[in-house]
From TrEMBL:
It comes from the Bacteria. Residues 164-703 form the Ribonucleotide reductase large subunit C-terminal domain. One of its GO terms (biological process) is DNA biosynthetic process. Its cofactor is adenosylcob(III)alamin. Residues 53-143 form the Ribonucleotide reductase class II vitamin B12-dependent N-terminal domain. This is Vitamin B12-dependent ribonucleotide reductase. Pfam families: Ribonuc_red_2_N, Ribonuc_red_lgC, TSCPD. Gene3D superfamilies: 3.20.70.20. Residues 1-11, 900-925 have a biased composition (Low complexity). Residues 1-22, 886-925 are annotated as: Disordered. It catalyses: a 2'-deoxyribonucleoside 5'-diphosphate + [thioredoxin]-disulfide + H2O = a ribonucleoside 5'-diphosphate + [thioredoxin]-dithiol. Belongs to the ribonucleoside diphosphate reductase class-2 family. One of its GO terms (molecular function) is nucleotide binding.
Length: 971
């Protein structure tokens, strides 16, 4: 793609390293065109259109975000447009300063990169700078790649230009350092990113202080950091901060560390069973600890050998290194697996493998990772990420003949690495130490998305030798090309500052990558040319690295690609397989439809099926959501269409083997959680963790379905007794009794049953007491808000009296509900009621709550008011209506502990009381995860998005919302 040539002398890093000192002082990159045409701007090659972006919360219909008339290419999907507009456009909505076109967004970023590249001597001429600008614009415009989210948030704005999503901190055994940890972590969370660190330098609770008392130990200090993370909303959003806490296996407090989340999970279950709201994001979940971090145990070779041999393993004092306790290695490893089985934590990191591939060991060991475990490098450092859309490089002639365009892929990788390195030259960092380390070592993290889609489209099963071969080849080519470009950059602007000290180790790791590439298995006509290109790239790496050194201490990793994956319209994220064969697609102008993945017909073409057969198979998948028993499909081809979820889901070891196929060709690691079925045993998890070490992975985490309480899954009904206590008589009977030509007031008896509810709406607190007739429904309502004698309290009293008198004169409750729900005024917003999560006003909340407590199911269903249980049931079965006999299941409650739904009314004599007009709600979905649940009758083990209420899906080690692009991780 490029060559170096003499040019103006710029840059000050040429003095770092012998290779740089020997190189000519004046050089620059000459940039080659990949996609663009001379004399034509990329914007002029696409068709632009205006769209309205209106994003609503599907649970209550409230508008989360609205911006009309935004400009995008007509090829961009509705989802991509919505997410980019709501997440990445800068400026206050409705103001003239607000961005309204993708052109403005791309120009804001790309022009900043071009200027910095010119200022720091990256280009040999202004023409090369312009080609760089146009090629970068073209690739972003056509969704070929994307920078990580902080670039879109910050670059080209007046705020600090933070470009990194991943951070690693450090903490020492002193109170000053521990308090610095709290502060630094908080600042990173405030900026919307995540951080990880290793606590193993802190003395254990089994060691003495200089004063003679026992140390607190790292687990106790984790409590303070956890509370801080729970308080600071990440980036000002409603999601929790993302963080990773690592502890070495030889730390004397390792057993307590392993058990931290297990004990809290037991507490959550006990509180849930007692009626507390323990949903993720519920009011009462904040009372439990250690919920804001991913935990990982760092194991070493000595421990794993002791595990294999059934021997003892020593736990060492932090200050002296002496063994203060011996434990049975098998028993400790078993406890690790048991804890992961119970609550998915801790994960595992393999210390010796990580540091075997470390390019800068003379500066310091790698002790920790970022929250999603893909970035692993020095303490107090950061990494900026970018990911390529692999499907953009798959060429298909329409006749089943496919090839992966390795040449074009390599050229785009060179372009992206150049841009990423330029960004470090102007980037801001959350702390001085992180800034110093990152500028000195210039860690980058190029990766990819859509691997799962690529494998299926090319007829490769995810869990197959062929699938792993193509994945390994692409990964090797990507990293080899990245380091090749890094060596070329070193010749132009100098190697990274720490290279001279670490040159031997860095070149050793390059040789390790090259050797792994040489012995990798070649399988077919798709992967073999890619391996050949990768081999050539690694030869250039060794040759140029010896001559020039390297500009970057790290080049590649595989991130979750959550929000940016949606921005690029990717079907799959990171290294993940496809979620399901049938997806949910939003349509321009509103509405949605379910479609069979476009990769399915491509795969069938590749496998040799004729067009008529393909159409029949696709029709079967559309109807059944599965390839099982599809007409004409050979059983031996079923595995090609295996997905992460569904009737033919990929086995856990299939995920581990895919990670192992790509890990030798990555500078960093892989963000991925191995999902396991609820029926998985502790022994199976233990085997997964052991095989991860044997296969050379750097880190591994598992998630057993339904192992956590704080998730909105199938609700376990906890309130049957309260139903009996609170169930009023049916409303139609009351109406029939009192509605006459002249209304007659029917007063309540002296003793009357009632429900008192405390509530919060938009931060305003209040109490509502609803009293009912002993046999005939709601009769009066009392509302208490603010201080006695205040205007608000007086108005609430007057309103209560008016409603109560109306009820006693026979005004049906449903009439009040239909009139007062959806009434908008302040205070409004989030409530503390799991059945009514959002309210547009206090009045809106009050009558939704009364409807849930006193109206029969059919009546309020017609008004669109459902409990959390019923909404979850609708996701599971397609119907809000409960089955005739509903069996309690072990699950995680999304609904409120109390159940106040009235029993269904008996058939009434009058036509008005007939519920025949109310029909069951049709099956609907709000994203692909929910669509899969409807098709297969299962519950995806994922939280609901705090921003829009849609069920999220896994993306690496994090969760991603397809509705609005929010993530639960750091990228």
């Amino acid at each position: 793609m490029t060559e170096t040539t003499s040019g103006p002398a710029r840059g000050s890093r040429a003095k770092a390293g012998k290779a740089a000192a020997a190189a000519p002082a004046a050089k620059g990159l000459r940039i080659e065109r990949i996609h663009t045409t001379p004399g034509t701007h990329p914007y002029d090659e696409v068709v632009w259109e205006r769209r309205d972006v209106v994003m609503t919360n599907w649970r209550d219909g409230s508008i989360n975000f609205e911006q009309r008339g935004v400009e995008f290419p007509d090829s961009w999907s509705v989802n991509a447009v919505n997410i980019v507009t709501s997440k990445y456009f800068r400026g206050a909505v409705g103001s003239p300063q607000r961005e309204s076109s993708l052109r403005q967004l791309i120009d804001r970023v790309v022009m900043t990169y071009r200027k910095a590249g010119e200022d720091h001597g990256y280009f040999v001429s202004p023409d090369d700078a312009e080609i760089f600008e146009h090629e970068l614009t073209w690739a972003l415009l056509h969704q070929v790649f994307s920078f990580n989210s902080p670039v879109w948030f910050n670059v080209g704005t007046a705020q600090p230009q933070q470009v990194s999503a991943c951070f690693i901190l450090s903490v020492d055994d002193s109170m000053e350092s521990i308090l610095d940890w709290y502060k630094e972590e908080g600042m990173i969370f405030k900026g919307g990113s995540g951080a990880g660190l290793n606590l193993s330098r802190i003395r254990s609770s089994k060691e003495l202080l200089s004063s003679g008392g026992n140390a607190s130990g790292p687990v106790s200090f984790m409590r303070g950091a956890d509370a801080s993370a729970g308080t600071i909303k990440s980036g000002g959003a409603t999601r929790r901060a993302a963080k990773m806490v690592v502890l070495d296996v030889d730390h004397p407090d390792v057993e307590a560390f392993i058990e931290t989340k297990v004990k809290e999970e037991e507490k959550i279950r006990a509180l849930r069973d007692a009626g507390f709201d323990m949903d993720l994001g519920g009011d009462d979940i904040a009372s439990v600890q250690y919920q804001n971090a991913n935990n990982s145990v760092r194991v070493n070779e000595e421990f794993m050998k002791a595990y294999e041999n059934g021997g003892k393993f020593g736990l060492r004092a932090r200050m002296t290194g002496e063994v203060i306790e011996e434990v049975d290695a098998k028993a400790l490893f078993r406890r690790l697996a048991e804890a992961a089985w119970a609550c998915a934590d801790p994960g595992i990191q393999y210390d010796d493998v990580i540091n075997h591939w470390h390019t800068t060991p003379e500066t310091g060991r790698i002790t920790a990772s970022n929250p999603c475990s893909e970035y692993m490098h020095l303490d107090n450092s950061s990494c900026n990420l970018a990911s390529l859309n692999l499907m953009k490089f798959l060429d298909d002639d329409g006749k089943g003949n496919q090839r992966f365009d390795a040449v074009r892929f390599a050229k785009v990788v060179e372009l992206v690495i150049t841009a990423m390195d330029i960004s470090i030259s102007f980037a801001d960092f959350p702390t001085q130490k992180i800034g110093e380390t990152t500028r000195a070592f210039r860690q980058l993290g190029v990766g990819y998305a859509n691997l799962g889609a690529l494998l299926m489209a090319t007829g490769h099963a995810y869990d197959s030798e062929g699938g792993r071969a193509i994945a390994g080849a692409i990964t090797s080519l990507m990293t080899g090309t990245s380091y090749k470009r890094s060596a070329e950059l070193a010749a132009v602007v100098g190697p990274y500052d720490g290279y001279a000290r670490n040159a031997t180790a860095h070149k050793r790791v390059m040789k390790q990558h090259s050797d792994a590439n040489a012995v990798a298995t070649r399988m077919d006509d798709l992967d073999t040319p890619v391996w050949a290109a990768a081999t050539e790239a690694w030869q250039d790496v060794l040759r140029l690295g010896e001559k020039n050194g390297f500009r970057n201490a790290q080049a590649s990793l595989l991130a979750p690609t959550g929000t940016i994956g949606l921005m690029m319209d990717c079907d799959t994220t990171g290294i993940e397989p496809d979620l399901a064969l049938v997806k949910f697609k939003k349509l321009v102008g509103g509405g949605s439809m379910q479609i069979v993945n476009n990769t399915v017909p491509q795969a069938l073409h590749r496998l040799g099926y004729q067009q008529e057969q393909i159409e029949a198979i696709v029709a079967h998948i559309s109807e059944h959501g599965s390839v099982l028993d599809a007409p004409g499909l050979k059983p031996e081809h079923y595995e090609v269409f295996d997905c992460a979820m569904g009737e033919r889901s990929i086995a856990p070891m299939g995920h581990v083997r895919m990670m192992a196929a790509t890990q030798p060709f990555l500078s960093g690691a892989i963000s991925k959680t191995v999902n396991m079925p609820e029926s998985a045993s502790v022994e199976e998890i233990e085997e997964i963790y052991y095989e991860g070490w044997k296969l050379g992975l750097k880190a591994l985490a598992i998630y057993r379905d339904n192992c956590k309480v704080g998730q909105p899954l199938s609700a376990k009904k906890k309130a049957d007794e309260k139903k009996a206590e609170q169930a009023p008589a049916t409303a139609p009977a009351a109406v029939e009794k009192v509605v006459e030509y002249r209304p007659v007031r029917r007063r309540l008896p002296k003793g009357r049953p009632g429900i008192t509810t405390s509530f919060t709406v938009g931060g305003a607190e209040g109490y509502m007491t609803a009293n009912s007739y002993p046999d005939d429904g709601l009769g009066e309502v009392f509302l208490k808000m603010s201080k006695q004698g205040s205007t608000l309290a007086g108005m609430m009293d007057a309103f209560s009296i008016a409603v109560s008198v109306g009820l006693q004169y026979g005004v049906p409750l449903e009439t009040y509900v239909s009139k007062f729900t959806n009434m908008r005024f302040e205070p409004a917003g989030l409530t503390d009621d799991p059945d009514v999560r959002m309210a547009q006003s206090i009045v809106d909340y009050i009558f939704r709550r009364l409807a849930l407590d006193f109206l029969p199911f059919e009546t309020r269903s017609a008004l669109g008011i459902h409990s959390a249980d019923e909404r979850q049931r609708h996701l599971d079965t397609g119907s809000y209506e409960p089955a005739a006999e509903e069996v309690d299941v072990e699950g995680l409650a999304q609904s409120a502990p109390r159940q106040t739904e009235a029993p269904k009314p008996a058939a009434a004599a009058t036509p008005e009381a007939e519920p025949a007009a109310v029909t069951p709600a049709p099956k609907t979905a709000h994203n692909s995860t929910e669509l899969l649940e409807i098709q297969l009758g299962l519950n995806a083990d994922a939280p609901l998005c705090f921003s829009c209420g849609t069920k999220m899906r896994r993306a690496g080690s994090c969760y991603l919302c397809e509705g609005c692009g929010s993530t639960s991780g750091c990228s």
